[in-house]
Amino acid sequence: MEKFKILPTHIGIIMDGNGRWAQKRNLPRYYGHKRGIESVRRVVKAAKKYGIKYLTLYSFSTENWKRPKEEVEFLFKLMEERLKKEGEKLNKQNVRVRFIGNREQLPKKLQKIMEDVEELTKNNDGLNLTFAINYGGREEILQAIKKLKKEDLKDLNEENFKKYLYTKDLPDPDIIVRTAGEKRLSNFLLWQSSYSEFYFTKTLWPDFSEEDFLKVLADYQRRKRKFGGLT
Ligand code: IPE
Ligand code: IPE
Ligand code: MG
Question: 182 C-alpha vs ligand 3 centroid, how far in Å?
Answer without folding.
Answer: 8
